[in-house]
């Protein structure tokens, strides 16, 4: 079938198998260009492995350290006349490349919050790898059904305490406008968001993996967070999502106690603001990212997800010597984003930005391209007017 992008708001409803394969290949090529990461992990579990930072983590582990990888995710398979999700196609492309390189790579498709998927993952580790020495937790979902109680929670994207008003952009039309977002009405909305996006499920995974004996001595586990600049605080760090991130970060000492007996350690890595399916949904953030991209590209320090993850592995998690942490014990690979010169310039542009000057003083074009790249579109090497085979299989998944 011929697959063209169909967009509804911040979601692209279609994805292209050849384009996503191109995107995966570009990321692999970047990791290869950086050379092997010394003392890297060899058996890796990535929870939330099909897009964004999770996919980039899996690619970095496989092609940066020759690691065997198991990826867990929840994606829609392709069917005749119906494209699969981008994450499905990403994983199919990744497995093809990994197997061609002689690397072990298997995947599990299902609800990672569920005990059943945890059991399936543990069984696969026992059967094929014995143990894993790195667990990456990179789930991004708006909903979670609690595996113990069966209660379904939906996260809420709102400020806390007062109405938030600031600029935002429709990155498709290029219209800059003011937006006002009402605060949460109750503590219950905050608790729902924590239940979905906080650290409880990460803890459940590590507990069950440890109890099953599939965590190697000295295992590392890392989850991902974001802080950002003051201008996004009301909707992000000081909002409902921020409370969930506080909970995620607060899980680190709990996991460290849990892993102490096997010499393991947990980390939260604070990453840079990037175009992802999740960040595109947050008001204000796309406009901030388009200005950030402009400034960082001009300074020659721009990074995408794969550059971030390669640097995290090579210069933090598996670098020689002690891992540098901030005052709250977090790894910071948002350090270039948060440089004073970068943030000063972004703040100056923020005051100036309008619909009329958006294309000139921001990198909204780069934002749009990155957004469509997520779904396999806007690659010069792909002819989107030609038929493509939409039914793509993931080698390790029996449908």
UniProtKB/TrEMBL annotation:
MF-aspect GO terms: enoyl-[acyl-carrier-protein] reductase (NADH) activity; NAD binding; trans-2-enoyl-CoA reductase (NADH) activity
Recorded superkingdom: Bacteria
Binding-site positions, NAD(+): 48-53, 74-75, 111-112, 139-140, 245, 274-276
Reaction equation(s) it catalyzes: a 2,3-saturated acyl-[ACP] + NAD(+) = a (2E)-enoyl-[ACP] + NADH + H(+); a 2,3-saturated acyl-CoA + NAD(+) = a (2E)-enoyl-CoA + NADH + H(+)
Pfam families named in the record: Eno-Rase_FAD_bd (PF07055), Eno-Rase_NADH_b (PF12242), Enoyl_reductase (PF12241)
Pathway field: Lipid metabolism; fatty acid biosynthesis
Active site: 236 (proton donor)
Entry EC no(s): 1.3.1.9
Residue ranges annotated for the Enoyl reductase FAD binding domain, each copy included: 325-387
Entry-linked PANTHER family: ENOYL-[ACYL-CARRIER-PROTEIN] REDUCTASE [NADH]
Function: Involved in the final reduction of the elongation cycle of fatty acid synthesis (FAS II). Catalyzes the reduction of a carbon-carbon double bond in an enoyl moiety that is covalently linked to an acyl carrier protein (ACP).
Subunit comment: Monomer.
Protein's name in the database: Enoyl-[acyl-carrier-protein] reductase [NADH]
Organism (species): Sphingobacterium phlebotomi
High-level lineage: Bacteria, Pseudomonadati, Bacteroidota, Sphingobacteriia, Sphingobacteriales
């Amino acid at each position: 079938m011929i697959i063209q992008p169909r967009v509804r708001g911040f979601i692209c409803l279609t994805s292209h198998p050849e384009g996503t394969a191109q995107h995966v290949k570009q990321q692999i090529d970047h990791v290869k260009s950086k050379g092997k990461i010394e003392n890297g992990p060899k058996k890796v579990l990535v929870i939330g492995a099909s897009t964004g930072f999770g996919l980039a983590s899996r690619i970095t582990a496989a092609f940066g350290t020759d690691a065997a990888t198991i990826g867990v995710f929840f994606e829609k398979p392709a069917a005749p006349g119906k494209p699969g999700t981008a994450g499905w196609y990403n994983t199919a492309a990744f497995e093809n490349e990994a197997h061609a390189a002689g690397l072990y790579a298997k995947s599990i498709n299902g609800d990672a919050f569920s005990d059943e998927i945890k059991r399936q993952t543990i069984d696969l580790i026992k059967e094929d790898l014995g143990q894993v020495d790195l667990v990456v937790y990179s789930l991004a979902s708006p909903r979670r059904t609690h595996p113990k109680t069966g209660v379904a929670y939906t996260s809420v994207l709102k400020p806390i305490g007062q109405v938030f008003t600031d600029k935002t952009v429709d990155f498709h039309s290029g219209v800059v406008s003011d937006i006002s977002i009402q605060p949460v009405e109750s503590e219950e909305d905050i608790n729902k968001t924590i239940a979905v996006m906080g650290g409880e499920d990460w803890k459940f995974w590590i507990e069950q993996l440890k109890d099953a004996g599939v965590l190697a001595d000295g295992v590392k586990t890392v989850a991902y967070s974001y802080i950002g600049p003051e201008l996004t605080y009301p909707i992000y760090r000081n909002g409902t999502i921020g409370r969930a991130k506080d909970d995620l970060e607060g899980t680190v000492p709990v996991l460290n106690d849990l892993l102490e007996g096997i010499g393991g350690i947990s980390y939260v890595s604070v990453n840079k603001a990037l175009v992802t399916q999740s960040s595109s949904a947050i008001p204000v953030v796309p406009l901030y990212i388009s200005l950030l991209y402009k400034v960082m590209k001009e300074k020659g320090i721009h990074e995408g997800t794969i550059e971030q993850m390669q640097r995290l592995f090579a210069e933090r998690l598996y670098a020689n010597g002690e891992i540098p942490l901030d005052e709250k014990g977090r790894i910071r690979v948002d350090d270039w984003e948060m440089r004073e010169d970068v943030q000063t310039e972004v703040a100056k542009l923020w005051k100036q930005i309008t619909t009329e000057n958006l294309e000139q003083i921001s990198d909204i074009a780069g934002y749009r391209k990155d957004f469509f790249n997520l779904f396999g579109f806007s690659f010069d090497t792909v002819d989107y007017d030609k038929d493509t085979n939409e039914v793509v299989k993931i080698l390790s998944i029996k449908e």
